[in-house]
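Office hours follow-up: a student asked to see two folded examples consecutively, so here they are.
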Amino acid sequence: MARIPDLEQFQGDWVLTRIIKDSLSGAEGHLTGRAEFTPMQDGAYLYREEGELNYGDQTPMAATRKYIWTPSEDGIAVLFEDERPFHTIETEKLMPDATHHCDPDLYHVSYDFTSWPSWRAAWRVVGPKKDYRMMSSYSRP
């Protein structure tokens, strides 16, 4: 059975590109930057991304984000920086998906590892004040 790469294979630097399409405002955003997976303790990795976000007519801005990726019984647990649960990546699938409910919004992600070592994460976010799609692509420098 095909599986996604082992967590340690994510270690190191990645080129990150992201497209955001907001259905409510009609705005489109583009982020270019980098992501890095740095080993922590107990087999976990700190995921940190930074880049420049160009969104609609707004002035370009610096964008950063951090998560913790850690081994779990079900695959890879993705935690917020403060260690609250976010979602789980099922390692038995090359194209796993997951959902996170953050009342009143719903976040759904579909990962695609079929072209490893390049991979993608496609997000669909909906709620009373949100309706956007976000496609992030990762490749080695």
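And the second, which I mentioned at the end of office hours:
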Amino acid sequence: MTIKPLADRVVVKLTEVEETTSSGIILASSAKEKPQVAEVLAVGPGGMVDGKQVDMYVKVGDKVITSKYSGTEVKLDKEEYIIVRQNDILAIVE
């Protein structure tokens, strides 16, 4: 089963969180922050959204930084994804 986003939505998968600090300290799961870097897996077509033309700037495979608490979490085939609006993506990581 695949997810096909509509309008200005983007499907992303968060990258793995580092479990140790740069000095070698192992972090407890409660001390880990929600990662903000994600990989784009699917992109909607854009078009008219709320009366405005939206062009899509991200593409599949891009690494992006998302707003910390944005999007809708979805679990599909034992994998977790987040569906966000393009305007919740803050930057593309190059």
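Two things to take away from it. The chain has a mean pLDDT of 87. The longest strand covers residues 37-43.
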